[in-house]
Structure formats: structure tokens, C-alpha cells
Amino acid sequence: MISCGKKIEITGVSKTFGKKTALRNLSYDLPIGKVVGLIGPNGSGKTTFLKCFSGIWEPDRGEIQFPDGLEKTSIGFCFEDPAFYNSRSPYRNLELIAELRGCDPGSIGDAILEMKIENYLYKAFKSLSHGQKQKVNITSAVLGHPSIIIFDEPNNGLDPEGFILFRELVERLKSEERTIIISSHLLFEMDKMCDHVMLFKNGDIIDDVSMDDFSKRDLESLYKEKLMAE
Ligand code: ADP
Ligand code: MG
Predict the structure, then answer these.
(1) Substitution candidate for ligand 1 out of 15, 19, 20 with most atoms within 8 A of CB
(2) Is any ligand 1 atom within 6 A of the Cβ of residue 22?
(3) Burial of 187 (0-12, 13-18, 19+ CB in 10 A)
């Protein structure tokens, strides 16, 4: 694993949808080997940033420079709109994703156990509950041991066990010095998991805090101060 202290350099990234500017000239040095959180109101550009970062979307301008030794291709992700086959099982969907990423299908076994999805592994994906689908989605992000893993609102629909398993998964990935980026509105969970938090507003990062200096109350205060004030 690449040594800590290195950064992914994000410079002047912009993205528009018609007349709507979703990202405005965003620049940030993203630390490697850390858990980085994105917080900000709905529509502030978090998902757009993560899709540009992961290479799913091309930014209109700007660049994202990965340091030597860190492959841009080694990114796992969990977005709200996963492209799963509804009539196929979670297992088959995970097999197909593993195949696409060029990773060993044997690695699916370990991933399945982490989010405890084994009880509905062979049902049709469409027959699962929202939370069960989300657990499969989270599982898909870690297939093939990517160096960077993106979780966009991973807690949506999860039950308490899901919250705990997800937090433990993040801890495991962090102990392996992977770079983890999480977007979530759950400040309490973000406080437990993140090393750094980026504050998104109107398509830009308006502040960046190290969580060593913040308690849960402080993160809420910070949100109120920076993101709720007009
Ligand atoms: P967040 O994830 O912070 O809630 P998004 O990145 O989803 O915000 O959205 C940022 C802005 O870009 C919003 O105004 C949203 O309406 C717009 N947007 C996002 N995706 C699209 C799209 N595919 N087409 C048009 N507008 C979009
Ligand atoms: Mg979003």
C-alpha cells in the first residue's frame, strides 16, 4: 500500500448540467490512507464530485492527479443508483462486477461475510428490501480490494446492524491504509468514522476540518455555522 502523507491533487474541477453549475472550480488535496467525509446540503455537489472523482463522469474542466503508485483504475464505489440486474441474484451481480473489474471471483466470499448478505444471496435482486439492496451495493464496492473506495450515502436504508457492520468495514479498510471517501448526512456516524471532513456548499468545498479536533457537538455546530447560515 502506498505510504501515507501523499495526496490526490484535485485542481479546478468544474461541472455543469445545462445552466446549472454543480461543481465550481473545486480544488482540494485529498489525503491518502485516510477516511475522508463529505458533508453538505442536498444539491451541494457531493455526488457530482464523487462521480467525477471516480471517473464515471468527465468534469468539464480541471484535473485529478493521482500520485505514482496509486492506480486511478483501483477505485471501488457505492452510489445510490447502482447498475444491478434486477432479475439476477446478488451473487450473480457481484460475480459480474468482479469480472468487469478483472478481480478474482473467489474474493466475493470474504466480502459477502462482512455485510452479512448470505441469507438472500440467491434471491432475485428486485425482491430484496431497500436496506438489503444497500448492503449488496456496499459489498460490491470492496470487491477486488481497491485502493480507493467511495461510499455515497451508504447508510441509506440500513438497519442498526447494517450501521455497525458498515462502520466495522470502514475500520478494517482504514487499518489497511486504503483511502475511503464517504458522503453522508449522519453527522454522528461521520464523527465516529472520519479523519477529515470536507464541507460542501454550492458546488465547492468551503472548509476542511481534521476530526481529531472535533466532537459530535462540534461537527453539528460547524454544520450550523458554515452550512446553515445564509
Ligand atoms: P448532492 O449529492 O450534494 O446532493 P448533486 O451532486 O447530486 O448534489 O447535485 C448537485 C447539483 O447538480 C444539483 O443542483 C443537481 O440538481 C444537479 N445535478 C446533479 N446531477 C444532475 C444530472 N444528471 N442532470 C442535471 N442536473 C444534475
Ligand atoms: Mg448526493
Answers:
(1) 20
(2) yes
(3) buried
| CA 56 to centroid of ligand 2, rounded, Å | 14
Atom of ligand 1 nearest to the CA of 49: 6
Q: Tens-of-pLDDT digits for all 230 residues of the chain?
A: 444 578 999 999 999 999 999 999 999 999 999 999 999 999 999 999 999 999 999 999 999 999 887 776 789 999 999 999 999 999 999 999 999 888 887 879 889 999 999 999 999 999 999 999 999 999 999 998 899 999 999 999 999 999 999 999 999 999 999 999 999 999 999 999 999 999 999 999 999 998 887 665 688 888 999 999 86
CA–CA distance, 176 with 172 (Å, rounded to integer): 7
The whole-angstrom separation of Cα 16 and Cα 25 is 11
For the domain spanning 8-69+148-154+179-230, the CATH number is 3.40.50.300
Residue ranges per domain, the chain? 8-69+148-154+179-230, 75-146
Q: Is residue 93 in contact with ligand 1, taking CB distance under 6 Å?
A: no
Using CB atoms within 10 Å of the CB of residue 77, give its burial: 0 to 12 exposed, 13 to 18 middle, 19+ buried.
buried
Quick one: which ligand is closest to 49's CA?
1
State whether the beta carbon of 46 lies less than 6 angstroms from ligand 1.
Answer: yes
